[in-house]
Amino acid sequence: MFKYYVQLALSSIMRSKVHSLLTMLTIALGIGACTITLTLVSSMSANPISHKSEQLFRVQLDNWDPNQAAISPDLPPEFVTWTDANNIVNAKQAKRQSASAITWGMVNPTEQGLTPFLALMRVTSKDFFPMFDVPFIYGAGWDESAEQNNDYVVVLSKETNQRVFNGVNSVGKTLTMLGATFTVVGVLDDWHMSPKFYDMSYGAFSAPEDIYLPLGLKAVFELPHGGITSCWKPIESQRYDAFLHSECINFQLWVELEDGEQKAQFNQYLTNYVTQQKTLGRFPRPLNNRLLDVTQWLEYKQVVKQDIQVMFWLSVMFLLVCLINAASLLSAKLHTKHSEIGLRRALGANFSQIILQYSVEIVFIGLCGGILGVLLAIFGLQGVASLYAGYGQLIELDLTVVTSVIALAVVGTIIAGLIPVYSACRPAPAMQIKQ
Amino acid sequence: MLTMNNIGKVFTTDVVQTHALRDFSLQVNEGDFLAVTGTSGSGKTTFLNVAGLLETFDSGQYTLDGQDIQGLNDRARSQLRNEKIGFIFQSFNLIPDLNLFDNVDVPLRYRGFNASQRKERIINSLERVGLGKRLKHLPSQLSGGQQQRVAIARALAGSPRFLLADEPTGNLDSDMAKSVMALLQEINQSGTTIIMVTHDKTLAEQAQRQIIVRDGKVCDSTGPITRPESVSATNV
């Protein structure tokens, strides 16, 4: 019987091609717009490390001006000073700890016969890589000894390795940069956290850095301060180390804590640390330490801006309007079928057979509209990606979003489309045949 | 056998109640050819619709082939209609988008016959009405008389016990009407019980029996009319 319903549906669609196409296009427009917006919102609001987001904590300490909070009403700054970053990382009170900051410098791959280029770099602790599950294609991060000795070691991004070493295994090879010779210890695989929660200084969806090197080398090479740098107190001199030992903040500090007990212990450690620093004349404000896990941090940073959320609801409403329009078109079409429905009932079709017959046609139209909508969404997303280059890697069609929107369209079309069929089936067949 | 005992049917609108059938009692035996006549609004079409399970009734008792109709759900009524009753309508009621083969196929699909059974029945019934060579034609390509023959073929394809015809010649000229009437008589002679509603007294006279309906009741009859004395619940 199902085959019969499919035959009837196809024949009905072919008989009213223009009408059916209009209905499908109406659904497709709604789905296309909704899928594009949902994909953007879903990508932007996704937690890129959900499996351990409750174990990773952003550390905030309030070393700010006693007369004015860093962030209103009474929130601590988002970054920490060089002093605090080093003290806390070296104290090793968490399972893992990582301080990092963006910087940049010249790379001179003369040995490889390439022209020098300016590279975006990240100075960081060795725990950065295991903490954030950074994937390696060759080698690994540097070890404790390299970190303590400020060895000239680097980890390259896959792109940089491709650029300098043609993508081959470069572990153990040397690279001239910052006027010194560095040894490559690791090469990352493709890695683009989105949003880039561990450092949103250049935007939540900015590209990852080209080169990673030990935190201590920032001082050795007096590397520039990338990202956001804020100071509430004048720096004593123009010397580089004066900045490092000032109350200026520039470093992202993250720790990994396995459970509530470790979190409580670490909190206590922070309290003790700040109390001890107060005795040295620092931290003039009341104790105001914060540990936010990844989810809390993303919420706090409002990664998904309000205007995008408004856009999301607008697109959902647009989809609903399209579905209502599609339902009106279907309703107009099915209204002409009242006498056929009555006749079929007179000839022996029961209520559920009639509903099933027209459901097949409606589902078919809904599905075609859905597939057309997804195609529109693919083109639309490519358009968005070409307009906003930074969002290129972010914009990937999410299967969950696509299936949800198509399911919504099909269910919406069925509900809307079956209303006229249901109302046509309610009167006695005799009345329908008369019509 | 079709038995109606004191059937009542009232149509209610916001402003008026119309008693379409009042204490309507009738028995139609196996193989009968019954003509139902009456003025417009007398209730004859309502009777036919109730008899064909196209309309429910409000009171009384109706048994079709020993089965009590009251209380049957939609599925059971549809099945009974499909298996035991064939319909012929005044305006033919063919589906314009389907060819003759597919039009006749409609009731057979709901009956659950397989493809070869359906094909055999469709071809046989279309041949029986003289349209065996026009299987792929659309209804719009046929004359009114031919369309009514297709409707008759559709009604016959499922081998129903009862054929209910509502003004089957109402939209036909006299020659076509005669040929359709001859076909109905032939069908009746082969054992199918026919109940035909008509305005045409000449056609009615060709039936075995006639009843006249007035104000929703059987008021007169010719031929061997049978009024049910009682309908036992044990018939259910």
Highlighted features:
heterodimer, A: 435 residues, alpha+beta, 2 domains, 10-stranded mixed β-sheet, 14% strand, elongated, B: 236 residues, alpha/beta, Rossmann fold, 6-stranded mixed β-sheet, 4-stranded antiparallel β-sheet, 7 helices, 10 strands, 34% helix, disordered C terminus
Sheet with most strands: strand arrangement of chain B: 6-7-8-3-9-10
User: How would the global form of chain A be characterised?
Assistant: elongated
Strand share of the residues of chain A?
5-15%
Largest sheet data of chain B: 6 strands, mixed
Strand percentage of chain B, roughly?
Answer: 25-35%
Q: Given the structure, what is the number of helices of chain B?
A: 7
For the record, the count of structural domains of chain B works out to 1
Number of strands of chain B: 10
**What average pLDDT do the residues of chain B reach?**
87
* Helix-strand sequence of chain B: EEEHEEHEHHHEHEHEE
Count, helices of chain A? 15
- State the order of secondary-structure elements of chain A, H for helix, E for strand: HHEHEEHEHEHEEEHHEHEHHHHHH
Q: Class by helix and strand content of chain A?
A: alpha+beta
Name of the CATH superfamily of chain B = P-loop containing nucleotide triphosphate hydrolases
Shape of chain B: globular
CATH topology of chain B: Rossmann fold
CATH domain class of chain B: Alpha Beta
User: Over all CA atoms, what is the radius of gyration of chain B?
Assistant: 18 Å
